Amino acid sequence: MPRPQQDLLASRIAEALQARQALVAEAGTGVGKTFAYLVPLLLSGRRALVSTATKSLQDQLFLRDLPRLCEVLSLPLRLALLKGRASYLCRWRLQQAQAGAQLPDRLAVRALQRVAAWAQGTASGDLAEVEGLGERSPVIPLVTSTRDNCLGTDCPEHRACHVMQARREAMAADVVVVNHHLFFADLALRDSGVAELLPTVDAAVFDEAHQLVEAGVQFLGTQLATGVAVELARDALAAGLQHARGLRPWADLQAALERSARDLRLAAAGPLREVRGTVKRRWEDCDQALAHVLPALAEAARELADAIADVVETAPDFPRLEQRARSLAALAARFGEAAEPGQVRWVDLTPHQARLVESPLDIRELIQGQRAAAPKAWIFTSATLGDDDSLSWFTRRAGLEDAATLRVGSPFDYAANARVWVPRRFPLPNAAAHPAAVGALAGRLARALGGRTFVLTTTLRALPQVAEAVAAAAPELALMVQGSEPRRALLQRYGDGRGAVLIGSASFWEGIDMPGDALQCVLIDKLPFPPPGDPLVEARVRQLREAGRNPFDDYFVAEAAVSLKQGAGRLIRTETDRGLLVLCDPRVAQMRYGRRLLAALPPMAALAEEDEALAWLRVLAAAH
């Protein structure tokens, strides 16, 4: 079926490629933006780097979309997939793991056996090929290398190294597919080949570009992780006992470094005794406590480095271990001093480690520097890049104010097929009764529809209360709640949605594609404003105030508009999809910014009362 929106997007991308210009393009759901940039890119004959948000989207481009188009267009192009080190098998570390790794349970033992069997025949070394190996398997760090522990040319398996092979293939390819995290991590660390690759391409295309700024902020900064210190301590102990036993007190040195790392995590956690997921803490809330323990970490790392230096000639592992220890000591000393101007600091806490981060607030300088370095086409595209014609939400933070912009709407008939309802007589989001009211309403609507309902919350805290209220209001429906099992398993169990309600937070707001009638009702509990206590949010607010701008309009509302578009985008995925979007936040109807947020959504017909919403859902239910 011809889509004029796709043709327009493709022609504008072709023009930008030809003129080596920068283009920022927002394309609504259903435009077909992937083919709209791939076809002109392949036909242009230009060597290109394509970056997307996740490894799964990377695999989709490389394994499905690009080969299909090359075949249809009869283009014998060389394609390459480039991921980070942690995605590739290290044959040397696999041998070490088989020889003496301490594995936590039988599942890990079986996983290692599977990896070893697969390693005999793999050509790429990409661990995504291993059936049933989860991304968080404890085996993965044992059979992959890091920038710190890679032996480089001293490695006995250097000639067969899958990381080096992937880089060679990327340098020889016409189109290379990477992901945003790898792109920024490599430009910061020069560790995966992107920094060498980027100057050699004629075009750089960033799909899912709305995630680009946050990916850059995470990876362009300086980080000190307690897990890295613990890993260094254990690697040093193993190498010391194997190659220089008795020459230095390896066990004491390991214990001192691990103890310092543990003290650092406790200082970073402060009063937080139990952490679920990742918690951001303001630097100002823990810098005094950190100041007491960082010198001890630096000293423990220096003592380990000095001990290794005394025996460095005895084994190929030692030079890299000494370098890692001295880098850790320097990092600990750096975080003991004031932050660099224009940088913001915070602490990321997980159940297992603390990560001290110092980072820029945006990616302006990096993108502007890369654009100035060599003339090439820069294409940035996504379904959500802002709520104004200049796409300022994205262009301002990426330093692309001078780029050409394009907004292409969805070809879907939202006015006929979708409805939006904002309940006016509803508890405000900060009211204690709000989560239960959201769950009760979701239960009533899902009963009328026969399931096929998503409830999206802005916080993990709301999930249990919402779920409890849904269960009370619709006990006959099956509930899938984020956190009860992995996301993929939840979505598989949700299936065709009949008799099912799924309740999820952040990771369910985007990247989920459920076309057809499996999902016909989406409830969003409240407007997705950035959390005001987040260190990055606070720093951006300060920056805007200093520039004389309004942080609420220019940041909070703009962020909410983009997130709202992402969440609402789960509802209508094809020309024939129909559904109901419910915004359980009466501020949308009461506050002046509500009009701006509704205008950011596709043009859905508005409903006024719950009876109208129930009637629309019964119409949808009757169609099955």
How do the helices and strands line up, and which of them pair or pack?
Blueprint: H1 4-19, E1 22-27, H2 33-44, E2 48-52, H3 55-72, E3 79-81, H4 91-100, H5 106-119, H6 140-143, H7 162-172, E4 175-179, H8 180-189, H9 194-197, E5 203-206, H10 212-220, E6 222-225, H11 226-243, H12 250-269, E7 279-282, H13 283-310, H14 317-335, E8 343-349, E9 354-360, H15 364-373, E10 377-382, H16 392-398, E11 404-408, H17 414-417, E12 418-421, H18 434-449, E13 453-456, H19 463-473, E14 478-481, H20 487-494, E15 500-504, E16 521-524, H21 535-546, H22 551-568, E17 579-583, H23 587-590, H24 593-600, E18 605-607, H25 610-622
Parallel strand pairs: 1-10, 1-11, 2-4, 2-5, 3-4, 5-10, 12-17, 12-18, 13-15, 13-16, 14-15, 16-17
Antiparallel strand pairs: 6-9, 7-8, 8-9
Helix pairs in contact: 1-2, 2-3, 8-10, 11-12, 11-14, 12-13, 13-14, 18-19, 18-25, 21-22, 22-24
Describe the protein in words.
By secondary structure, the protein is α/β, with parallel strands linked by helices. It folds into four domains: 4-84 and 162-219 and 365-408, P-loop containing nucleotide triphosphate hydrolases (Rossmann fold, 3-Layer(aba) Sandwich), CATH 3.40.50.300; 86-160, no CATH class; 221-360, Four Helix Bundle (Hemerythrin (Met), subunit A) (Up-down Bundle); 414-622, Rossmann fold (3-Layer(aba) Sandwich), CATH 3.40.50. Helices cover 49% and strands 14% of the residues. It contains 25 helices and 18 strands. A hairpin with a 4-residue loop joins β8 and β9 (354-360). The two termini are 25 Å apart. The mean pLDDT is 91.
